[in-house]
Every structure is written in structure tokens, then in C-alpha cells.
Write a structure and sequence with these properties.
177 residues, mainly alpha, 75% helix, globular
Length: 177
């Protein structure tokens, strides 16, 4: 399959998820347990914007051969969050009407956590081949935690994932030139 097909599938799933948002949110909120509550709050923290930025920066700094990728990572990260800010203001989607386990304000679409997390994937896949499965699980748990905690819909998370991947891939392509 070619890459445009993957993007098409991603956009299709995003559009489809809009129609399923309330049902999926209600289902995920319905499986809450005290243990999962604590774990998902933990992923909210370790998937927090500054923790993610510092974690990947540390991994890049640790290896002298990878230090040159710190600035492209920062560009990826901050461009992603700037895009999130602009899109949130433009769309102004309200957060789910459910009992949220954490306090958060602002608009819902796209998820900033998911965008930041997924923006790191292209760089991790390029530079840390042995870590990519672990990093993917980490990123997916961050994304799932947003729905579980009741602060985002599935479409918010999918939109953030697509946005983050797009920016991450774009910056990598620009760095190659």
C-alpha cells in the first residue's frame, strides 16, 4: 500500500469517529476502575507536554550521534502545539459532557497530548529502531488516557494523532533536504 492510502484511511477513520464519539466515550468511561484511574492519570502526567519534550530530548542528547536531531525535534514539537492552538480556536469544540477525572479547560479538538505524542513517532522510528514498539505503546496509552479521563472524544485523539504524524513527517523530510 502507498502512503497516501494510509492518510486516506486515517482521515476516513477520523470522520467515522465523529459519529461514534459519544458511544465510545460512554463505553470507555464505563470501564473505569480505581487501578485504571491511577494508571491513566499517570499517563496524563508522563504524556504531558513538557515531560514528553524533555524525555525525547534526553534520549537524543544521550547519544552523541543523535544530538543533531534535538533542534528538529523541538521544531516538530512546537509547530505541532502551535497548530493545535490555532485549530482549537478555529473549531472551538466543547469537551465531552461526562465526569472528567482531571480538571482541564479549553477546547477539545484536537488533543494536544495526542498531537505531541504522535509527532514524536517519525523521529523515534528513524533513530531508535529497537524502541519503536515500546514508544508506540507509550504514545497509544497517552492517547487512550485522554478518552478514559473524560477530557477528549475519540475524534479529538485521532485528529491529534494525524496532525502530529503529519508535522513529524514533514519536519523529517525538510531536515533531509
Amino acid at each position: 500500500m502507498r502512503k497516501p492510502v494510509y492518510w486516506g484511511i486515517g482521515v476516513f477513520l477520523l470522520v467515522l469517529s465523529v459519529f461514534l464519539d459519544s458511544n465510545i466515550t460512554n463505553f470507555v468511561v464505563g470501564i473505569r476502575t480505581p487501578v485504571l484511574d491511577g494508571a491513566m492519570k499517570g499517563f496524563d502526567y508522563i504524556g504531558g507536554k513538557w515531560v514528553l519534550l524533555l524525555l525525547l530530548t534526553f534520549l537524543l542528547f544521550y547519544d552523541k550521534n543523535k544530538r543533531r536531531w534535538i533542534v528538529p525535534w523541538w521544531v516538530t514539537y512546537f509547530v505541532s502545539l502551535l497548530a493545535v492552538y490555532i485549530i482549537k480556536l478555529a473549531i472551538s469544540r466543547e469537551r465531552p459532557e461526562t465526569v472528567a477525572l482531571i480538571l482541564i479547560d479549553g477546547f477539545s479538538f484536537p488533543s494536544g497530548h495526542a498531537t505531541a505524542a504522535f509527532s514524536s513517532l517519525p523521529l523515534v522510528y528513524k533513530l531508535f529502531k529497537k524502541m519503536k514498539l515500546y514508544w508506540l505503546v507509550y504514545v497509544l496509552l497517552i492517547a487512550f488516557s485522554r478518552i478514559y479521563l473524560g477530557v477528549h472524544y475519540l475524534s479529538d485523539v485521532l485528529g491529534g494523532a494525524l496532525l502530529g504524524l503529519f508535522v513529524g513527517i514533514l519536519v523529517l523530510k525538510l531536515c533531509r533536504k
